[in-house]
Structures are given as structure tokens and as C-alpha cells.
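Retry 2 of 3 after timeout on previous attempt. Resubmitting C-alpha cells to design endpoint.
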């Protein structure tokens, strides 16, 4: 029969071969799962690599005020023609057949080994702007890394406790199916004794078949949840979570505490602030284009014997450079950079507002789930008692088969709703801590749960 084969399918799906001890599922509490995720997440590693790259670039800008020293070596094949006017000696030279002016032509091969040093003395703000922009890029990359960590931890909570919920739902569906199987067996006996009609027995079978389909779906949902958590934690053999679903019966800290933490430590705000700093650095760089640059320079020729007549043995000096005209409107570029600053400032203000709204919503959802979980305690107890009464009444012909079915399904529904309320509590708590920049405190909050399933 298809229904009786389902437990075997479930057992086969999650069985561990005895000969493969290393293929056993990992047994992890949430704290251990979090540590494993932080060590193995490729998304976190990618953001960390991006941060290291920006830090290296920022380090490269710290020496922009130092001189640039270039070594240049050239191999030349050249021709040089010189004209020497004779002046007052021209008549004498002409008597000897020498034409005025004298003409000298030289063709030769030469080398030019030269060292040139250039030192920026005043760059109009280009150096400080570049360094400030690099520091802001590091801050942005660090915020991106923190955001990646926060997102990964929220996803871990969803997967870890999603598997817990799927396991709980499977157990409840299994119990409901077993109860309805017993009810069908009772109905068949009562029908044979002509105490109930065939229609009542069919009602029981229809309910049993519906429960079997729900049980199959629960098996599939658990397999999907198991694959999601195993993939996230890079555990091919699967993960067995041991931190239970539950709630903390005590209320959360005041909402204002979470709002203050969000405005102080949320990485998204740090990212937007870094973008604002980059925009400010952009203004500095555009303004620097309107100013002159002053630099010192020096050059030394190591091969004076073969040097050209125009080449000095050595030289030092100071240079000034100023761009009089440019094809691009430099003042308009400054205005554009300032508008970028205004854009980032407005975005930062909007983010603060949305963050406060999100924290308020998440805080309310945590409290609502906590209260719902406590209310479902009595509902589950009442549903269990009702099932006992309806089953007894049915056997004594004081209730119908439909009454027993409704009671059985009502108990399963109450148990699932209670498990769902616990999962809602944990997921809303993860959202609250993430939005307030405190996701690293999630294991501590979970350890305080005093009402677990």
C-alpha cells in the first residue's frame, strides 16, 4: 500500500550507510553552525577579498607625496648638422676656398642612460582627494563585507530553523496519519458490526488519504530544507540541527534600544556614509583641476661623453603647470560632484528613516509571535482533550466519524501553528537583530529561550 511505504522512503532518504562513518550528518547547534558558515561561506570570502583589495589600494595612496624616480636608457642612431658663421674671418676663409658658414655633419650611435626625479610640491588637492577617496572605498568595502555577513547569518537562521520546522511538521503529519489510520480501522470494525454506515467509513478513508498526501508533502519539504542547510554549510552528508524551536517568554528590550543600535551600527548606513565621503573626495579632485600644480624635478646623465649637445650633464629645477583651457567644462564637473554629495546625503537620511520603520516592524513581529506561541499552548491542550473525547464518544456512538476527523485534524493544526509561531519568532528576531546591526548576538538570544518545542 502506498501509505505504508512512505516511512520506508523517508528512512531511505536520510539513512547513513554503516560503512561510511565520515558520511554521517553533522550534529550542530546554532552557534556551531554560525561559526561554520563564517568560515566556509564563499559570499563572505568574496566580500572579504574585495575589502583586502581596497585596503591594498588605499595603502598605495599613502606615498603619493613621495618623489617619482625613473631610470631611462635609450639607444640612439642620429645625425646632427651644425653651422658655424665665420663673421669677420669670412674674407680670409674665402681666399682659402672655405665657404661661410662652416657646416659640420655627424652621424653616430649613442646611448642615453638618464635618471629623472619628480617631486610634487603642490597638487591643488589631488593627493589629499585621492587619499580620502581611497579611505572611503575601504570603508565601503568593509560595510559591504559586514552586509554580506549579516545576510548570510539571516539566511542561516531561515535554513537552520526552517529544517527544524520541516522536521516538526513531518512528525505531526505522521501522527495525524497514524491517528486517522486507527480511526479507519475502528470505522471498518464498526461498519462490520453495523453500528455505522458505509458513508461514515468512507469519510474516514477520505480524511486518511488527505493526511497521507500531506505526509508525502512534508517528506518532500524536509528533503528540500535539508538540502538547503547542507549546501549553505558545505556539508554534503547533511546537518542535524539540535538547537530547538522556541521562544523567550520574557519581552524584548524596549524598541528605542534597537532603534539606537540600528542608527549607530547598521552596516548599510556605514556604506552610505562611505559613499558620501567618496563624493566629497570627488568634489576635492574636481576643484583641484582648477588650480595649478607645482613640482620639483632633477635629472642626471650617466653618459656625458656620448650625450647630445643639447643634453645637460645634470639639471634641477621647479616647474609650474596650469591648464588654461579644457574641452570638458571643469566648473560644471565641480557642480556635478557637489550634486552627487547632495544625492548621497539624501539617500543617507532616507535610509535612516526606513531603518527605523523596519526595526519597529520587526520588533512588533517578534512580540506578536511570542504572544501567539503562548496562546497556542492552551489551544493545543484543548485540541488534544477534544480528540480524546470525540474518539471515546464515537466508539460509544455519541459522535460521528466526521467529528473524530475534525478533532484529529484540529490537533494537528494546533501543533503545526504552535511550531510555526516559534519559527516566526526566531525569524522575526533574526530580522530585528540584522536591522539593528546586532546579528552577532543571535546565539545569545537563542540561548535565553525558556519555552521550546
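Retry 2 succeeded. Sequence:
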Amino acid at each position: 500500500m502506498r501509505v505504508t511505504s512512505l516511512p520506508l522512503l523517508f528512512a531511505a532518504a536520510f539513512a547513513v550507510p554503516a560503512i561510511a562513518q565520515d558520511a554521517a550528518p553533522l550534529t550542530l547547534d546554532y552557534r556551531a553552525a554560525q561559526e561554520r558558515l563564517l568560515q566556509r561561506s564563499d559570499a563572505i570570502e568574496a566580500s572579504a577579498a574585495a575589502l583586502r583589495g581596497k585596503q591594498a589600494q588605499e595603502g598605495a595612496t599613502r606615498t603619493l607625496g613621495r618623489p617619482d624616480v625613473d631610470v631611462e636608457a635609450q639607444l640612439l642612431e642620429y645625425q646632427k648638422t651644425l653651422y658655424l658663421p665665420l663673421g669677420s674671418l669670412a674674407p680670409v676663409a674665402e681666399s682659402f676656398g672655405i665657404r661661410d658658414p662652416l657646416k659640420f655633419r655627424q652621424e653616430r650611435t649613442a646611448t642615453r642612460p638618464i635618471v629623472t626625479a619628480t617631486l610634487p610640491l603642490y597638487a591643488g588637492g589631488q593627493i589629499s582627494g585621492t587619499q580620502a577617496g581611497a579611505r572611503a572605498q575601504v570603508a565601503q568595502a568593509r560595510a559591504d563585507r559586514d552586509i554580506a555577513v549579516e545576510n548570510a547569518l539571516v539566511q542561516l537562521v531561515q535554513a537552520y530553523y526552517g529544517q527544524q520546522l520541516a522536521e516538526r511538521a513531518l512528525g505531526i503529519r505522521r501522527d495525524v496519519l497514524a491517528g486517522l489510520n486507527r480511526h479507519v480501522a475502528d470505522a471498518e470494525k464498526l461498519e462490520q458490526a453495523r453500528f455505522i454506515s458505509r458513508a461514515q467509513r468512507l469519510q474516514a478513508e477520505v480524511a486518511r488519504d488527505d493526511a497521507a498526501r500531506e505526509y508525502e508533502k512534508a517528506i518532500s519539504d524536509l528533503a528540500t530544507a535539508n538540502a538547503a542547510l547542507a549546501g549553505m554549510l558545505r556539508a554534503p552528508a547533511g546537518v542535524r540541527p539540535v538547537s530547538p524551536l522556541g521562544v523567550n517568554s520574557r519581552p524584548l528590550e524596549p524598541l528605542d534600544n534597537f532603534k539606537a543600535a540600528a542608527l549607530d551600527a547598521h552596516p548599510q548606513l556605514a556604506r552610505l556614509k562611505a559613499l558620501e565621503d567618496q563624493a566629497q573626495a570627488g568634489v576635492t579632485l574636481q576643484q583641484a583641476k582648477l588650480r595649478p600644480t607645482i613640482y620639483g624635478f632633477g635629472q642626471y646623465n650617466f653618459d656625458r661623453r656620448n650625450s647630445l649637445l643639447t643634453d645637460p650633464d645634470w639639471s634641477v629645477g621647479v616647474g609650474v603647470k596650469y591648464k588654461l583651457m579644457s574641452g570638458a567644462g571643469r566648473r560644471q564637473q565641480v557642480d556635478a560632484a557637489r550634486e552627487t554629495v547632495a544625492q548621497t546625503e539624501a539617500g543617507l537620511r532616507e535610509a535612516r528613516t526606513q531603518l527605523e520603520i523596519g526595526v519597529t516592524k520587526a520588533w512588533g513581529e517578534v512580540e506578536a509571535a511570542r504572544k501567539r506561541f503562548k496562546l497556542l499552548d492552551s489551544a493545543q491542550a484543548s485540541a488534544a482533550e477534544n480528540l480524546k473525547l470525540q474518539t471515546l464518544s464515537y466508539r460509544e456512538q455519541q459522535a460521528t466519524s466526521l467529528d473524530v476527523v475534525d478533532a484529529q485534524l484540529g490537533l494537528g493544526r494546533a501543533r503545526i501553528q504552535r511550531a510555526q509561531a516559534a519559527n516566526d519568532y526566531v525569524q522575526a528576531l533574526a530580522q530585528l537583530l540584522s536591522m539593528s546591526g546586532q546579528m552577532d548576538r543571535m546565539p545569545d538570544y537563542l540561548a535565553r529561550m525558556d519555552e521550546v518545542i
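Attempt log closed. DSSP finds eleven helices and eight strands in the chain.
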